[in-house]
Amino acid sequence: MNTAIAVSDIQREPALLGQTVVVIGGSAGIGLETARRASAEGAKLILTGRSPERLQRAASEVHALSSSDFDATDPALLGQFFRDLPTSIDHIMVTAGQPYYGRLIDVDFAQARRALDEHLKLFIAVARNAAGKVKRGGTLIFMGSTGNRRPAIGLGTASTETAALPALTANLALELAPVRVNLIAAGFVDTGLSASLLGDELENRRNQLRAKLPIRRVVQPTDVAALAIHIMTNTALRVQLTTSTAASSSSTPEPK
């Protein structure tokens, strides 16, 4: 008698069933794709973004519990958002912000400050506000980059962020334990932000990566989102994690 069970007949319980996931920067790109995956795994979603129209579309698509359109780098608005959250949540992912490129000796201080605010200061502010909201064993996930690790003209601000974020994340992991704090450091990911930054050079960059990367394809938001969900569900990952998706040795800017 054949007692083998077909794989298709095995029903798996959704990995995030009943859990609440907050995505700061969840209206597009990696943030939205992570929200999609979390929703498919049974999570209740809370999304934020700067564009009301885009955020509304995203929230509707993933059947979000709620959404808030505001600038997350504004400390007062961010604090109010966290005060309005439910008593406890399970996971927070932060994907807000974009890199700033320009020669340091010609730097626009307002834009450079904005870029730093969107990463270093934002991550600290999120961690501070999340300390009393995230459940024990929950996760705080930051989105960083592996690009711009080599010195190059025009990459001073971006490479400074790249170097600083792992150290910041490791320290926050110690301070917030047993909440798990992780950093996903990605190389080039084929998002709308990448398209807007690279313009006519986008297809050339895609072709370079297809030829260079061992996987012979360009990394998509779905790839990074899958990793984010894995970090949320694998509770053995209890320390700062830096991982590279399509890391490049080139000094070419690597937008997420």
Description:
By secondary structure, this protein is an alpha/beta fold. The protein has a single domain (15-245), classed as 3-Layer(aba) Sandwich (Rossmann fold), CATH 3.40.50. The protein has 8 helices and 7 strands. The protein has a 7-stranded parallel sheet, sandwiched between helices. Helix 4 (109-130) links the parallel strand 4 (89-94) and strand 5. Helix 4 (109-130) packs parallel to helix 5 (156-176). The model is unreliable at 242-256 (pLDDT under 50).
- Rg is 19 Å
Shape: globular
By DSSP (H or I, 4+ residues per run), the number of helices equals 8
CATH architectural arrangement: 3-Layer(aba) Sandwich
Which consecutive residue ranges, at least 5 long each, have pLDDT under 50? 242-256
Short description:
The chain is an alpha/beta fold and 256 residues long.
Give me the secondary-structure topology.
Layout: E1 20-24, H1 29-40, E2 44-49, H2 52-61, E3 66-69, H3 75-83, E4 89-94, H4 109-130, E5 134-145, H5 156-176, E6 180-186, H6 192-198, H7 202-212, H8 221-233, E7 244-245
Parallel strand pairs: 1-2, 1-4, 2-3, 4-5, 5-6, 6-7
Helix pairs in contact: 1-8, 3-4, 4-5
